[in-house]
């Protein structure tokens, strides 16, 4: 128990996106975290009195979630969430998941069916360092948020802040809130250039 | 015998309980239940865990019956001091099912009316009846609420039935390698087993004598069953194709000799009628599918941990997911993990560090979360 608490406060300092989500969602809400990883975010939400539930496909991450007491379903979100009732959740969260799904549009649409709002967080491909790496190295960029090489990345899609805004327009999603982050703080100026991580809340 | 983490020498006891009205309307009187307990019941009686066994299991789940016993109870890897079902913390009750032949009321019990064993005149028993009998046993301890009910395969069906028969009576429910109902394939395997027994010359409509029982048929039934408990990979690893000698009259493959051995040793510890009763209970158990299953599970109040195994082709992960999805649709609290194993259906019985982690984490959760 003590070990996970230490981990959590450290996680929170290093994850301004987690802090933002924790601020956004009020106690008593119900949350579905798609691709919840080792359950760190759900664990923090639980501490705040938010009833969460996760889906994850990695076995070790699932074991970690259950050890933390985070309700979790071992499965692939691409294979359907159809058993969940409409608007069952207040929030559906896709934290750095969307770039790994086969059909992001379908997942978000399904997220909006079962949740009142969907929060999407993704690594911004428009970040200056990414742009410079391509420009000067001429290679697929490897950064801390995009830490994989082209041959071992789980990421199927690479998107920037501008890409996502355009996507919301095309699909008719209403953006209710957005926030952008670098390592430890929020970015409020020229997000598509300066933000490593982008967060959108849509409806 | 590693006694450090073992519950040590244990004894199977038999409780004689009151009348039990069965699903089919007949009344079992008296109701006998064989059981074992490990650990100590707390003064508040709030630390009890009921462990339910699979088809050919019994009440002997942990420890040894004597210092000369070679193999401990069937879930000894998980029950004991410091193990997942920690006997330092919990009071574990393992009860034998009715309809079986390991000390509880079943076909080999004496019919009080005739003074002879029931044989095939024993009434039909359902999974729900097995749970009702367990409830009588738990009540006899004065326990008001079980901390957990856990079981694999047929034991998982009992655990699932517990969660809806007595929603207020359990805090946690663990279901391993199980299913909300048998598929046609699962029924088919059981039917082949039953037909093997029925076609034995000694069958005599189930009214056979102890010294002339349908041994060959029961051994065949066990052989078919045993194939389904393993995985192709496991069998390949254990036996391969060795040694093919091409002898028409003998079993010339290692896997064949192994199955014959399994079948023959099973006959010494199991009754043919019980095999029929228990497999029928399994085949008849049905909580439905989809919305029907969601509705069936809606009374449940407990937390669930569902575990399936990638190599289990008898109760494939899809059947566990069916339970999980229905529980989620009914808005229940559920953990689900599909463990990557090689050992097939038997995986839930075998040591697995991840399974231990998952069960430990689940049982350590504060009661109100």
TrEMBL record, chain A:
Q: Tell me which CDD domains the record gives.
A: AdoMet_MTases
Entry superkingdom: Bacteria
Which ranges form a coiled coil?
A: none
Spell out the NCBIfam families in the cross-references.
Answer: metW
Q: What is this protein called?
A: Methionine biosynthesis protein MetW
**Protein encoded by which gene:** metW
From TrEMBL, chain B:
The entry's keywords: Acyltransferase, Amino-acid biosynthesis, Cytoplasm, Methionine biosynthesis, Transferase
Q: Give the protein name, as stated in the record.
A: Homoserine O-acetyltransferase
Q: Which PANTHER family match?
A: HOMOSERINE O-ACETYLTRANSFERASE
- Matching NCBIfam families: homoserO_Ac_trn (TIGR01392), PRK00175.1 (NF001209)
One Gene Ontology term of the molecular function aspect? homoserine O-acetyltransferase activity
Q: Could you tell me what this protein does? A: Transfers an acetyl group from acetyl-CoA to L-homoserine, forming acetyl-L-homoserine.
InterPro entries to which the protein is assigned, alphabetical: AB_hydrolase_1, AB_hydrolase_fold, HAT_MetX-like
Chief subcellular location: cytoplasm
Q: Which organism is it from?
A: Leptospira langatensis
The organism that produces this protein has a lineage beginning with: Bacteria, Pseudomonadati, Spirochaetota, Spirochaetia, Leptospirales
Identify the EC number(s): 2.3.1.31
Bilayer-crossing regions: none
Q: Where does the record place it?
A: Cytoplasm
């Amino acid at each position: 128990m003590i070990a996970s608490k230490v981990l959590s406060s450290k996680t929170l300092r290093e994850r301004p996106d987690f802090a933002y989500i924790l601020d956004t969602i009020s106690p008593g809400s119900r949350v579905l975290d798609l691709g919840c990883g080792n359950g760190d975010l759900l664990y923090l939400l639980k501490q705040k009195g938010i009833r969460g539930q996760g889906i994850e496909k990695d076995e070790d991450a699932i074991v970690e979630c259950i050890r933390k007491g985070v309700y979790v379903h071992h499965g692939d979100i691409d294979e359907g969430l159809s058993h969940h009732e409409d608007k069952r959740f207040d929030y559906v969260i896709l934290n750095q998941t969307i770039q790994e799904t086969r059909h992001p549009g379908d997942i978000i649409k399904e997220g909006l069916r079962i949740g009142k709002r969907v929060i999407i967080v993704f690594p911004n491909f428009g970040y200056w360092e990414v742009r410079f790496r391509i420009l000067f190295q001429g290679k697929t960029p490897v950064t801390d948020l995009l830490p994989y090489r082209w041959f071992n990345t789980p990421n199927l899609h690479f998107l920037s802040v501008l890409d996502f805004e355009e996507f919301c327009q095309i699909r008719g999603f209403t953006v209710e809130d957005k926030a952008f982050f670098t390592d430890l703080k929020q970015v409020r100026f020229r997000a598509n250039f300066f933000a490593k991580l982008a967060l959108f809340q849509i409806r | 015998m590693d006694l450090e983490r073992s519950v040590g020498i244990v004894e199977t006891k038999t409780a004689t309980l009151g009348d039990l009205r069965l699903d089919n309307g007949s009344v079992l009187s008296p109701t006998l239940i064989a059981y074992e307990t490990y650990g100590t019941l707390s003064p508040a009686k709030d630390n009890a865990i009921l462990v339910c066994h699979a088809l050919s299991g019994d009440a002997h789940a942990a420890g040894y019956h004597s210092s000369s016993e070679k193999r401990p109870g069937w879930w000894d890897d998980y029950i004991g001091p410091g193990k997942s079902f920690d006997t330092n913390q919990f009071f574990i009750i393992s009860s034998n099912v009715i309809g079986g032949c390991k000390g509880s009321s079943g076909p080999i019990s004496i019919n009080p009316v005739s003074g002879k064993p029931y044989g095939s005149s024993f009434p039909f028993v359902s999974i729900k009846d097995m749970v009702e009998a367990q409830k009588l046993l738990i009540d006899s301890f004065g326990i008001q609420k079980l901390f957990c009910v856990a079981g694999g395969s047929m034991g998982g069906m009992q655990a699932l039935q517990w969660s809806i028969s007595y929603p207020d009576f359990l805090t946690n429910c663990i279901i391993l390698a199980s299913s909300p109902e048998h598929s046609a394939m699962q029924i088919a395997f059981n039917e082949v087993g039953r037909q093997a027994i029925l076609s034995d010359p000694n069958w005599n409509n189930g009214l056979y004598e102890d010294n002339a029982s349908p041994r060959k048929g029961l051994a065949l039934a066990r052989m078919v069953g045993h194939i389904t408990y393993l995985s192709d990979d496991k069998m390949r690893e254990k036996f391969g194709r060795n040694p093919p000698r091409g002898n028409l009259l003998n079993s010339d493959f290692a896997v064949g000799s192994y199955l014959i051995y399994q079948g023959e040793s099973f006959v010494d510890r199991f009754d043919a009628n019980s095999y029929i009763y228990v497999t029928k209970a399994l085949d008849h158990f049905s909580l439905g599918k989809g919305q029907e299953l969601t509705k069936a599970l809606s009374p449940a109040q407990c937390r669930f941990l569902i575990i399936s195994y990638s190599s289990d082709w008898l109760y494939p992960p899809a059947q566990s997911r069916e339970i999980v999805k229905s529980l989620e649709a009914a808005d229940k609290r559920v953990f689900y993990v599909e463990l990557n194993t090689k050992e097939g259906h038997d995986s839930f019985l075998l040591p697995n560090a991840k399974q231990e982690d998952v069960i430990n984490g689940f049982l350590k959760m504060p009661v109100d979360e």
